[in-house]
Amino acid sequence: MAAPTIGSAGAPAAPRKKGPSLGQRIAVGWRKNAQNLDLFDENATDRVKTDPWYMLGGMSMLFWLITIATGTILIFFYVPTTYQAYRSVLAIKEEIPVMWFVRALHKYGADALIISLTMRVFRMYFRGEFKNYNQLSYSLTILGLILAMFSGLTGYLLIWNQRALWATKVFATFPTFIDDLHQIPTIESTPILANTVGWLLQNTLGALSIGKTTATYMLAGASIGPATLTRFYAAHFMLSILTLILVEAYFARKGAAGRVRRINLPWYSVVAFVAILSLVSIFVPVDLGSPADPNVTPNPILSDWYFLGLYQLMKLWKPTTATLMTILIPLVAILCAFWDYSPERSAWKRPVWTVVGIWAFVMWIAFSVLICLEIADIQRDPPIIYAVSAIMLGGGILWNFLYRRREARLKRAEAAAKAAAQAAKGG
What we know:
- It is built from 16 helices and no strands.
- It folds into two domains: 36-300, Cytochrome Bc1 Complex, Chain C; 304-419, no CATH class.
- Helix 5 runs antiparallel to helix 6 (135-157) and helix 13 packs across helix 14.
- It has 427 residues and is an all-alpha fold.
């Protein structure tokens, strides 16, 4: 047995207290995150009245319920077969009374849901709302955005028109490149990375064919066909239902301690948002396009608006690199909540993280515009993008340096003023 430590006075020193272990810290963090969980800004009852940005949670819930309700109605008229899918949607648009309006509400309601979730993610990021044990709320908002986009992907094919068919074909190739991540130029050209990371990727993801298996399971075969449409139809429906059940279970448990507003919006806001959505549905009819033809490749191949940036990635970088970027984007967005551990929440007091958020938003918009304009040169554009990114992020680092320097100078001046005041009192 180890002898007790002897203090300077000859008495045994008090045993050193051990801090909480990593597991204990994780457990405490998880418990506090669960207590602070806020999926649709339902905890911001007072803030909604004074700050319109806190309406985004209630807007997301409202548009989601509209999308589910209208989708449920459309089920009764839609036929999920490659022979009848396009015809049934055409009948919904032109023959069945009022159904054109229901379909438009469904389409634009889903778009509004993705917009409101995207804006909520950026709001939480720029305002540092993930701090003080709110990382779970932030992460689940990003997960909700991913699920909404994937639901949009599965619903996009159900029309069975030319644009949807070929956009899905392009998107379905993304998972297959997971098996070839070891062929990323940066890894292949660096011996150390090739012998470590490359070897590991090749003998795990590559050997198990994770990407090809995922693509085959998603398409229900080697290519898009009748089974794919059936699978997408089931996924589109069940994804919303299962998510709704989980959300309702969350609200039921949270509501046990008191009444919880699922749609945390003033009544006049609900009326206004529904009215705007209805007007858009009336005056901007949803285009049906031409029937799907696997023998004719459209040019350009474009997906729905929220996937345009990813399509540009495929044009500007090698498929394996673009696939890795696609995987890293949401992962890095979530990890930012854990890397930015400073107590400041204001965007002005977090210069580097603020610039990173602005850079991500600018890149997403720019890539979406470039693919619509059919501007893509794999030799010319990536170096330009790297240069713009370096300038923006370098500016953020310089801003951070100047801000920290200014804060230190102000603290020194404040300390000197206090010392002078104390000296004057003593004199």
